[in-house]
């Protein structure tokens, strides 16, 4: 009997994906609001921000068949969050949003492996990410995916960052890229 399994595929997002990206952001924010009072809920992100990331090739999607299962953005520069550590060559991952139909399938680990490979290809030494506040569930999840939890950092210069970073403390995570 033939298997109907479709291996996930990671592709650059395109401008045609922008409505689905925002749908997944809204669903992620609703999930954040429903699951924990301590979690900061994502704001409505500016469409111009995502449109610019699409133009720059910094928005990604994990496809299962014809369906977007996850989206995320990357950057090589994140000084307002990482301060002096921003001088290190790194890929910074932001706004991982999973389609609710695909939660629990380990796709963050798939994204982490992709990010390590991507970092290597671009001569970066680290994959980094952050989350607002001290979300113990995400800390456990990201450390299980191989990240080192670096602790909390109070943000001081948040001009131009999305609203959830204003007056925020962030949990920082780092994963060295070997070889």
Automatic annotation (TrEMBL):
<dbReference type="GO" id="GO:0016746">
    <property type="term" value="F:acyltransferase activity"/>
</dbReference>
<dbReference type="InterPro" id="IPR016181">
    <property type="entry name" value="Acyl_CoA_acyltransferase"/>
</dbReference>
<feature type="domain" description="N-acetyltransferase">
    <location>
        <begin position="8"/>
        <end position="176"/>
    </location>
</feature>
<protein>
    <submittedName>
        <fullName>GNAT family N-acetyltransferase</fullName>
        <ecNumber>2.3.1.-</ecNumber>
    </submittedName>
</protein>
<keyword id="KW-0012">Acyltransferase</keyword>
<dbReference type="InterPro" id="IPR000182">
    <property type="entry name" value="GNAT_dom"/>
</dbReference>
<keyword id="KW-0808">Transferase</keyword>
<dbReference type="Pfam" id="PF00583">
    <property type="entry name" value="Acetyltransf_1"/>
</dbReference>
